[in-house]
Amino acid sequence: MSATERITFRHPFMLPGLERPHQPGTFDLVTEREALDVSWPAFRLSMTILLTEAGGVEAVPVTRDELDAALKRDSEQR
What we know:
single chain; about 80 residues; alpha+beta; 4-stranded antiparallel beta sheet; about 15% helix; elongated
């Protein structure tokens, strides 16, 4: 199962895997939940942010903790 949400950065931001700060904007965050084959309800969660730049789209894997930290840093900037 996958879900997409829109997230907005108001300032340049960094995420693990990026070589330099990315320009601010609104981006799609795709979350995939894959059921694990075990005897209790369990899922593997993966998140990918789709970053647009120069007419292209780059898919960058990110964890919820990494994303939350980046969004917090963004909200604390003036």
